[in-house]
Input
Amino acid sequence: MKTILTGLRANSVFTIGNYLGALLPMVRLANKHVNDCHLNLFVPDLHSMISEIDGGDLQSNILRSIKCYLAAGMPTGKNVHIYRQSRVPAHSELCWILNCIATMGEMNRMTQYKEKSEGKNSVNVGIFDYPVLMAGDILLYSAEYVPVGEDQFQHIELTRNLAMRFNNRYGDIFTIPASTKEQVKFMGLEEGIRIRDLLNPEKKMSKSTVAENSKIMLDDTPERAAKKIMSATTDSLGKIKFDMWGQPGISNLMVIESLVNDIPLQEVIGKWSGETKYGELKKQVAASVSKLLTDFQVRINEISDDQVYELLESGERYANEVANTKLLEVQKAVGLR
Ligand code: TYM
Output
């Protein structure tokens, strides 16, 4: 059985970018493949430490993340595995071995590292190295499909390169994840998802952006989210056209409308292209997002802590079994065992 795997850092409440870019694609694939694939949705809690976090909040963030997974519609059952990265020590061990395969040159090219370290006097090594830990997260479970937002595509390509390099040196140990082009196709998309900042649509929507109106959080009230959409930056061209370079604000709204309602983007573009009333499109998107948040918030409140801990118990048992088996293969291949 193939494995589909993803994880979302548990630093704070998720944005709608996290939700639409990674969680919803995972949930939709999981519901489609619940009988024919392993579905690993984990909390990369070690990755949370690359940003300064309040240790006291981490446990509650982890719990809330998993409730978000379930409230987003993640199925449960024998092929679904929900776990915390730090409860599976093999992740850290494989990370070290892969560190000795990765080169400074390729790591220096990682856009996320460049963006996250820009303008800072001092940058922690974790920010530089986290794509290698991520590669280990994927390779331990032989995952072929990894639904992530477009900002993580370079890390999927890095994972493929590390796996191929390792296999060339030490034998056929790792399954090579699908290329990002194949990943996009598997998700039923035309291109990778990058939800834009509502105020600066040239930029990615990010939870670390300070301006509250630039992002929609999953715990925003539906009214607040609607207001944020109504005040989103667009352009002065006066005619709706899907053009991420020329009209990123309005194009971003069409992408959101398509993903929230699971309608092909081309259909949304067909409906709105040529229209001149930006306010009408904004109202439509605001209604779609409000409904999404209303439903999501009802569901998340119905999930108990006990339900989460029960899932973690079986998920972590499974994860340790699979990860330790792969790690032992790796250790034998490199001569550590
Ligand atoms: P993280 O926690 O920064 O983001 C979680 C997921 O949300 C996606 N995302 C977006 N997608 C579209 N538009 C946006 N504006 C947007 N913002 C965030 C991200 O692409 C990501 O898929 N290193 C990863 C977490 C990770 C992981 C893994 C993922 C660790 N190990 C193994 C997959 C497989 C990260 O920091 O994502």
Notes: The two ends are 28 Å apart (CA to CA). The pocket of tryptophanyl-5'AMP is lined by residues 5-9, 17-18, 21-22, 44, 47, 130, 134, 137-138, 146, 148-149, 151-152, 193-195, 204-205 (CB under 6 Å).
